[in-house]
Amino acid sequence: MYRLVSSRIDDAELRDRYITEYGELRRHLFAKHAATLSAEDQQKLDDGTHPSQSHSFATDAEPYCRLLDSHLRSIGIVPNEIVLGWYHMDRIVLTVYLDDSQVPADGKPPWLFQGFEVFYVPRSNKDTTVH
Questions:
Q1: Looking at residue 126, what DSSP letter applies?
Q2: Of 77, 127, 65, 74, nearest to 104 (Cα)?
Q3: What is the pLDDT of residue 103?
Q4: Global pTM?
Q5: Buried b (16+ CB within 10 A) or exposed e, 85-115
Q6: Which residues contact 2 (CB under 8 A, 6 or more apart)?
Q7: For residues 42, 43, 45 and 50, what is the CA-based torsion angle, rounded to 10 degrees?
Q8: Is 33 helix (H, G, I), strand (E, B) or coil?
């Protein structure tokens, strides 16, 4: 899933409705994703102790970079680098750097992985990282 980088909806009521619906959809999709995780990881998400839920859990989050690298390679995507990204509201995301030719155009790579949100960044846009 790719994020809409810029759009403009001049109608404030319509814009607010779309933002609300988008948030509801993201929460619904994350809940479906969370239901596929182990009971232990689901409990960590519920307790707020999953490594994705705080910058203070960075050490525990690091192994997920290697797991995602292995998974992506198994589906034919070869990352240059996968690093932790410091996202708003104290969340950690997994940031995947790819050569421009490796950037998936079909939307098939995971945007959620083991409780983390995943961002894909072409190397040509490395300065636009999520920190």
A1: G
A2: 77
A3: 65
A4: 0.79
A5: bebeeeebbbbbbbeeebbeeeeebbbbbbb
A6: 107, 111, 120
A7: -100
A8: helix
Strands 112-113 and 81-87: unpaired
DSSP structure string for 89-124:
TTEEEEEEEE-GGGS-SSS-S-SEETTEEEEEEEGG
Closest by CA to 95, choosing from 86, 104, 105, 82, is: 82
* pLDDT-based confidence at residue 100 (cuts at 50, 70, 90): confident
Query: What is the identity of the amino acid at 89?
Result: M
Pairwise CA distance, residues 82 & 96, whole Å: 4
What is the rounded distance in angstroms from the CA atom of residue 119 to the CA atom of residue 109? 10
